[in-house]
Amino acid sequence: MNRRQAALDYHAQGRRGKIEVIPTKPCLTQRDLSLAYSPGVAEPCLEIARDPAAAYTYTAKGNLVAVVSNGTAVLGLGNIGPLAGKPVMEGKGVLFKRFADIDVFDLELATEDPEELIQTLKILEPTFGGINLEDIKAPECFYIEQRLREILDIPVFHDDQHGTAIISSAAILNALELVGKSLDSVRIVFSGAGASAMGCARMYKKLGVRPENILMCDTKGVIHRGRTEGMNEHKAEFAVETEARTLADALRGADVFIGLSAKGMVTPEMLKTMAERPIVLAMANPDPEISYEEAKAARPDCIMGTGRSDYPNQVNNVLGFPFIFRGALDVRARTITDGMMLAAARALAALAKQDVPETVAKAYGLSHLVFGPDYIIPKPFDYRVLIWVASAVAEAAMRDGVARIHLDLDEYRETLASRLGKSRETLRIMFTKARRAPRRVVFPEGDDDRIIRAAAALAEDRMAQPILLGDPAVIRARAETLRLALDTVEVVTPKGSERFEDYAQALHRLRQRKGLTLIGARQMLKRSNYFGAMMVRMGDADALVTGVTSAYSEGLKPLLRVLGTGTGVRRVMGLHLVLAKNRAYFLADTTVNIEPTAEDLADIAIHAARTAEQFGIEARVAMLSFSTFGSVRHPFTEKVRRAVELARQKQPTLVIDGEVMADVALSPEQLARDYPFSALGEKRTTVLVFPDLQSANIAYKLLSTLGGAEAVGPILMGLAYPAHVLPNNAEVKDIVNLAAIAVVDAQERQRQPAVQAAGRMW
């Protein structure tokens, strides 16, 4: 299917268009209706009448943006009218919601009279928290934005004018750093003299580019002093003394090319005349002023960016407007200042230099992304853009004196992280606990790129003190290739460690009655998993995370043999935290016990409940089966019922019930209606204990693969010391998550030393 038909089908199939309005409060009963509308709605109305600022408390105003267009400059399609431009405006609404959780009403206004448009938005001001102007032709767009900023007390932002300016500024800041040139010395040439070009040029001047070093070209050639054809007051701002009259003339010796015009405006021969290591941002869409292939063939030394997602360095406005409005709305800014826009550009530039999560790289079909000529600005699907840019904008608004409320920036970043979904919110509890008292976490597979990246992230975020096992030269070389700093990360070579013989003697004493000789102990310690486990046992590390280069069972064996189970613990158990439908569930046993007995299931339930509590989640345990409270009599269901009895005997305060089918366990309404005697009551079940490994493993993998849930883990329970085994397909975020959990586990055990005592050795 061609792109045209695919795009038409995308918009037409199913529910027409791309957006809908969804209520955020229940409206199911007569009482709900009386609160949502008459008579209850009168109360917030009266509060707002007394204090207009209360509208931000009792209505959606503070999270609602108007996306406004009159259809006079839609994409590259020109003046096609407001109705034809509506799909673009709906698209902006989708992007606002998807990337920054901002609600949008799109307003297509049937007027080309600037005063009429301005007056319309002035009348509508009470409805919105901000206004995003879009696809309004120049020069009217400049006047409209200026007047609205003067007469309105909410932020107004013309994305065509400022969006590209902010994103391209970030690209230029980083590209100039890579080529070793300074803002005050470079010459910049523009192809195009519309709203985007002028917005960019004004932003570059604020960054430090000299006005006389900017040459702007339109369809009549270079805008120079003395030119009268096709000029207006806005173009006159960029007229300079120059002998250049054509784009080709202007490009000779230029350091930077900014394309905001049309396909094919630049030839390879023109690029060849530019200065050494030129920066080429050819941003015409869908086809740039010169193709990526042509530019690289003509100037292999250039840093190239386009507006397309299928080439490096996409200059995409979605990196700006959602996050700028997020920050502005959250401090209730009266306007958007130059300082806020510059802060956004600098935040994007800084983020591009950070280590990039694997999930971001994989979204673009790449194995990794590293700051350099092919990666000078973040990718739109990098979830961290929200946190970095919105917080920078909010800080600038407070600094510039346009914020109505002031935020604690650390707390605000945490709030932004929670907007990314329940997974970030739930894990944030563990991350916060880990940062309070970081512990030493040893990684036996220290030369794996994923481990190196995770260690760098953990050290930078101060969530752990990583220890990597392996050859220091190899690990440092890999880190340098990945452009990661390991200054605070300890690297240990097992064979060369001064503790090697101490560990060998201790391991021999530990397992001499299990057939291990001293020579065998020394041989065993040459394997990094055994050495790492001994580091934990001997107190030279607080926790261990392994598994990315071996089968799960192979990673588990050294932990069982060296660390053993805790006192009174029958066997180790596996648990996954599954984040689905914005809720957190703990599923066990998902990795270890194939056919657990009733006694095993009781232990699994108790340990899983403790883990849930560590995450700050109330443990309400459902023991799952294919029967609900005796509806089917079978040895399998009897085993589950017996496990509930044993768990209650061992832990009388534990909220647990079963046997129960999964759908019933997850429905508080059905439990309350049909099984009022159940201990699970009317609250949500949070811990699901499966009758065997087969069903548990299948369930969590189906949820994560087909259901779109995020699975965190596996979390090992029952070992005498904090240690966990990852699946070998783990990504960097999985390693970081499990390491943070290991740190918190170590913190808890060190507060309760008795828990650390070793019980059964395997």
In short:
The chain is α/β, with parallel strands linked by helices. It contains 31 helices and 21 strands.
Describe the model.
The protein has a six-stranded mixed beta sheet with strand order 7-6-5-8-9-10, sandwiched between helices. Strands 18-17-19-16-15-20 form a six-stranded mixed beta sheet, with helices on both faces. 46% of the residues are buried. The chain is globular, with a radius of gyration of 31 Å. By secondary structure, the chain is an alpha/beta fold. Helix 6 (114-124) packs parallel to helix 7 (140-151), helix 15 runs antiparallel to helix 17 and helix 18 (409-419) runs antiparallel to helix 19 (422-436). The chain is built from 31 helices and 21 strands. This is NADP-dependent malic enzyme.
Task: List its traits.
762 residues; alpha/beta
Task: Summarize the amount of helix as a percent range.
Answer: 40-55%
Output the strand order for the largest sheet: 7-6-5-8-9-10
In quaternary terms, these chains amount to single chain
Describe the largest sheet: 6 strands, mixed
The helix tally amounts to 31
Number of strands: 21
Give the rounded overall mean pLDDT. Answer: 89
Percent strand equals: 5-15%
What would the principal axes of the Cα set say about the shape? Answer: globular
Keywords: Multifunctional enzyme, Oxidoreductase
Domain Malic enzyme N-terminal: 16-149
Pfam families: malic, Malic_M, PTA_PTB
Family: In the N-terminal section; belongs to the malic enzymes family. In the C-terminal section; belongs to the phosphate acetyltransferase and butyryltransferase family.
